[in-house]
Design goal:
This protein is mostly helical. The protein has 9 helices and no strands. Helix 1 crosses helix 2 and helix 5 runs antiparallel to helix 7. It is globular, with a radius of gyration of 18 Å.
Length: 198
């Protein structure tokens, strides 16, 4: 129970921070505003984060929260490939409407130079666990290829998402991330799908 309460408190802080970052920009958001928005105390904030900069790497938590929210909406009868495309569309829709490109770019650049933990690659994240589960299920049902391991397919999927996000950032969001991904992700992942036998 205490562990869940800690998780919820951290989630409230992260959600509040990213909401403010999107609305008023990272530089114009103060720790005090984040604390007020989260409805928590300064001590609680500093228990979880060293400061505002530490929140930059917390974007991966925001992504995982989106996946957690989507879990009950996943149709168990849906083809595994279609589940992967659905998750991608929902995540990219959320990113496009609530995460600034500048902060996304900052996260990516920080992951490139960090010598410590790379949050985006953490295999213990819900993101990777859920993708692995969907892929393994798809392989078991014959919907996805068995020529690659579930780990390799999950890595390929994550790599494709990162590539699209990177391109969207360097193109200054001149196109719809969600719409472009709907066209491109199925092409990029075509080889993992077993064609249905008619």
């Amino acid at each position: 129970m205490a562990k869940q309460k800690k998780r919820l408190t951290k989630k409230k802080i992260v959600t509040a921070a990213w909401k403010l970052f999107y609305r008023q920009g990272y530089d114009d958001t103060t720790v005090d505003e984040i604390i007020r928005e989260a409805g928590t105390s300064k001590g609680t904030f500093y228990h979880y984060f060293d400061g505002k900069d530490a929140l930059l790497s917390s974007l991966s938590y925001l992504f995982d929260d989106k996946y957690e929210e989507l879990l009950p909406q996943l149709d168990p009868d849906k083809d595994s490939f279609d589940k992967l495309i659905y998750l991608n569309q929902e995540l990219f829709g959320m990113i496009e409407t609530s995460v600034s490109r500048e902060l996304l770019a900052s996260l990516y650049s920080s992951q490139l130079i960090t010598r410590g933990e790379k949050h985006l690659l953490d295999q213990n994240r819900l993101y990777y666990r859920l993708l692995n589960e969907i892929v393994a299920e798809g392989q078991k049902k014959g919907e996805l290829t068995s020529a690659m391991s579930s780990y390799e397919i999950t890595k390929l999927y994550a790599l494709c998402e990162r590539a699209l996000l990177y391109d969207w950032c360097i193109c200054n969001g001149e196109y719809s991330l969600k719409a472009y991904s709907l066209r491109v992700m199925p092409m990029l992942l075509h080889e993992i799908r077993n064609e249905k036998v008619l």
